[in-house]
Amino acid sequence: MLTRREALLGTAAGAAAAALLAATAATPALAEVQAADISTLPREKVTLVAPPFVHDHQQVATGGPKVVEFQLTVKEQPMVIDDDGTTMQAMTYNGSIPAPMMVVHEGDYVELTLVNPETNEMPHNVDFHAATGALGGAKLLDVNPGEHATIRFKATRAGTFVYHCAPAGMIPWHVVSGMSGTVMVLPRDGLKDEAGKPLKYDRIYYIGENEFYIPRDENGKFKKFDSLGDSYDETLKAMRGLIPTHVVFNGKVGALTGDNAMKANVGETVLFVHSQANRDTRPHIIGGHGDHVWEQGKFANPPAKDLETWFVRGGSAGAALYTFLQPGIYAYVNHNLIEAAELGATAHIMVEGKWNDDLMTQVKAPAPIAAY
Predict the structure, then answer these.
(1) Catalytic residue among 79, 92, 108, 129, which?
(2) Which of the four pLDDT bands, split at 50, 70 and 90, describes residue 370?
(3) DSSP3 helix / strand / coil % (the chain, rounded to 5)
């Protein structure tokens, strides 16, 4: 009899993977030429950092294409997702929700090693929306617990792109349990405005939006499970209801507020990259704007200007530039305000600097109506 783990693992490599590998083997001469060319390129090994931060990178590329090496390690772990202690059996890359952002330039090669420790229960892989090829390379990265694999793909299109786990038969569960991130492919000569003039940012923040589906007990309380496998059946039923219990930024209600709020100074230009691997969302900076916005995340397209709210489609990432002109605490929200206020999709940006009365001032303080 199959154990729960064996039943959930299923087959690690199916017919699609075999066909894909066979197709690769059928053109050895081409593969050898490509390998020989790539072997002459410089290589850069990048240490990823947890969101909302992004690893050091150049906004304008220097020199020609290179191979940029990344590593993701799968961590299946319980994670607290709100201030009430609600715990989800999460699946993550590198232990964070969302997974880290990877930054390269157009024409570079992304070389990703995926490690699945033997202590995990599930098979995992990565589907790169930035990649060109069947299933975003997912079948080439199928790894069972105790295995690792490496894939390389060329970054042929500039923009912000989602990546996520996509194991056969279990894709939605893995994605809504935390397994998604973003690759940003910058143009080699950097970002440009609608007239082709250079745009630069002083800071960059990555906001990953997720919706969670936590099963409830007969009293309406959120349930806690001992293991990932134990959570599967009831989580799947909750998912099929299509009503999330939490909609959060960076893995937890309040993850980007208080001491963890994003920071900026008056006069600084900030690039906000926002992803949602599963549902549509509508980012909005309360008190600010999107000076230049790539709603679809594609830097080859001219950015929209002066947006109050922008639309990020499910399964994609968008980018917005804003130069802060006033100090204060700005709320960065999903402008489905029910999801922002009631389910958790709110972050804060703490901006330091000098107040400009010309932009906003209080003409008269609150007073009794009779005094008016």
Answers:
(1) 129
(2) confident
(3) 20, 35, 45
